Amino acid sequence: MAVDPPAASSAAPESPAAPPAAAGARRPDGRRRPPYPVRRKVCRFCAEKLRDVDYKQIQVLRAFMTETGKILSARITGNCASHQRQLTRAIKRARNLALLPYVSH
User: What pLDDT is attached to residue 100?
Assistant: First the structure.
């Protein structure tokens, strides 16, 4: 039994300039939009107007590490690029001087 191809409809094709979708709808790449406006993260060091990150400030450095001792990325913490580089350098210096652990089990 042969299957006939579907007949072409006489309806006009959808226009490429569709109206903006509602919150929670899909993006063109298939991902979902969040149902709320996304809030931009702010660099903690820029907000406090700190120029340099010090390796001796252990409590500040621990806030940017996971429980297992990994350094959190700027995407998660919201740090700007220059402060993220300073933070990484400070954490590595503190680890080298045994102020912070390399790994926590």
Answer: 93
Measured CA to CA, the distance from residue 2 to residue 16 in angstroms comes to 35
**Beta partners for 65?**
71
Amino acid residing at 79: N
Q: What is the pTM of this model?
A: 0.64
DSSP 24-57: T-B-TTSPBPPSSPPPPP--HHHHTT-----TT-
CA nearest 51: which of 99, 4, 86, 95?
86
Burial of 1 (0-12, 13-18, 19+ CB in 10 A): exposed
Answer whether 45's CB lies under 8 Å from 78's CB: no
Separation of CA 79 from chain center:
10
